[in-house]
Structures are given as C-alpha cells and as structure tokens.
Design goal:
With 77 residues, the chain is mainly α. It is 61% helix and 0% strand. It is built from four helices and no strands. The mean pLDDT is 89.
Length: 77
C-alpha cells in the first residue's frame, strides 16, 4: 500500500498563521466542499471551468473537489 506524501510548508516565522485561523479555514473549506456537492451545480461544470482557467487536468481537479468535504474530519480533532 503506497504511503501518503507528507506536506511541508516553508514560510517566514514572522508571517506565521495562528493555528486557530488555520483550523477555521479548514472548516470553511470542508463546509464549502459539502455545500458544493449538495448544490444543483454539477461537478462536471466546475471541473471544466477550473480546467479552462488553470490548465490542470480534470482528474486532478476531481481529486481535490472530492477531498474538500473530508478535510475537517481528516485534519482536525
């Protein structure tokens, strides 16, 4: 079974984001993912719009969109 890559962020210590703000942002992203999944807007429409704007493959975008609703459960207590 492949291991998940670990994310690392290098940033200037003077510009650190407080943990509370990071947690609130994770919750907001997770809630956005849930709302988008429950909306009338089809995922295919979002995929095509984002692909057109970014040039990123629809498969990669789909993985991100599918992961959004689970961020809170995965990364917060």
């Amino acid at each position: 079974m492949p291991t998940k890559p670990k994310a690392t962020v290098k940033q200037n210590p003077e510009n650190e984001v407080p943990l509370e703000i990071m947690a609130e942002s994770i919750v907001a992203l997770s809630q956005f993912g849930k709302k988008m999944s429950a909306s009338r807007l089809r995922q295919r429409a979002v995929l095509l719009l984002l692909k057109d704007m970014t040039g990123i493959s629809p498969e990669k975008i789909k993985k991100i969109l599918d992961a959004l609703p689970d961020l809170e459960q995965q990364y917060l207590k």
